[in-house]
Amino acid sequence: MPTPARAAIVIVFIYLFLVGVSSLENGIGLLGEDVQANLFSAVTNPLAGLFVGILATVLVQSSSASTSVIVGLVASGAVGVDAAVPMITGANLGTTVTNTLVALGHVRQTVEFRRALAAATVHDFFNVMAVAILLPLELATGILARVAKAMSERLVGASGTEWRSPVKEAVAHPVRWIQDVGEVVGATGNVLGVLMVLMGIAVILVSLTFITKNMRKLVANRIERSLNAMLGKGGGLMAMALGVVITIAVQSSTITTSIMVPLTAAGVLTLRNAYPMTLGANIGTTITAILAAMAASRPEALTIAFVHTLFNCTAIAIVYPFQVIRELPVRAAEMLADLAAERRAWALVYVVGMFIVVPLVGTVLLR
Question: Cβ contacts of residue 136 below 8 Å, gap of 6+?
């Protein structure tokens, strides 16, 4: 097959892959939209707030959506800034489940599956490390909230704005069509959510098969080396910046991190170059919330948006410059990937345990 034709096929299936991810997110959102606000209310224990943030974000599969709910509760006075901080950190963890689910699409190919799962879970392990370091520090000192408050008091009342991503809009149209068709045939609420989740999974699996198959043939080893050499030259800073830019452009860290999974599975990206891109996505996903929150009438709303950004930036500043610490999430992800490649059930145990059982039990016991 000619190279241009194969490149066109890859582009088409990357688009379909993004449609599948968006359908999955929207379907999970329909299943969880009635539960999320109730989860956030009446939480006083900081650990419970962390677990609620994880669980609520898993339910809607969007840290931006969770953050928006938290910002709204803080702005209305229903939740204090101090209580909201652990929820924000939990939202950082919960949003990573989609790219881990995407990695499961490679389960039939051992080598691809190992690479894909490592690329997906390195994000998880970094965020767990960030929470383990920064949440106790924040609870003891309140440093992030104080800095965020000082920043918000200077900027509150400024003109807010909203960036409408053309990529996100292009992906959203087919998802709306799927939702409209479901409603026409009488599917609503949880039934419609389940249908959209199943449709999203099906589209993701088919797209992943064609993306990885054609990507391996399209991208020669020389180009792979050039791409990874280019991203590696800046010590990860270039890859991190690229993650920020892409996430701001598509308005979704989930899309950014999920698209890196098949690229890493196909060998186009190395794990150590995909890793800083996920960290850039962590920062990029907070920018649009800040732009929107600048129009809020109360400084508390902007304070929480800044806490989210400061949390991610501080975590990167603490962890990434030091190779010994920086390598810990990579090694943990590789160990889990090796284990799951030998016994696939470990991947399912990890996803269910990490994103459902632990936060659910923690919420019930500590709330």
Answer: none
Reported as a single tens digit per residue, the pLDDT across 14-65 is 788 777 767 766 775 666 545 555 656 556 788 888 888 888 778 766 666 6
DSSP 8-state code for residue 79: S
| Rounded Cα gap, residues 66 and 116, in angstroms | 26
Using alpha carbons, list the distances in angstroms from residue 266 to 24, 103, 243: 23, 12, 19
Give the separation between CA 178 and CA 324, rounded to whole angstroms: 47
From 19-28, 313-322, 324-333, the region with the lowest mean pLDDT: 19-28
Mean pLDDT of 125-139: 93
For residue 226, what are the domain limits? 3-366
CB under 8 A, 24+ apart: contacts of 192-198: 192/27, 192/30, 193/27, 193/28, 193/29, 193/30, 193/31, 194/27, 194/31, 195/27, 196/23, 196/24, 196/26, 196/27, 196/30, 197/23, 197/24, 197/27, 197/28, 197/31, 198/27
Tokens of 39: 């989860």
Tokens 């509150």 belong to: 156
pLDDT at residue 76, rounded to an integer: 62
pLDDT in tens, 212-242: 666 656 554 444 555 566 666 666 788 888 8
Instruction: State the angle between helix axes of 166-184 and 189-218 in degrees (0 to 180), rounded to the nearest 10.
Output: 140
**pTM attached to this predicted model:** 0.74
Other C-beta atoms closer than 10 Å to the C-beta of 168 total 16
Q: CA-CA distance, 235 to 155, in Å (whole number)?
A: 33
Q: How many domains does the chain have?
A: 1
102 and 116 in contact (C-beta within 8 Å)? yes
Q: What is the DSSP letter of 107?
A: T
CB of 24 within 8 A of CB of 196? yes
| Spatial distance between the Cα atoms of 130 and 153, rounded to a whole number of angstroms | 26
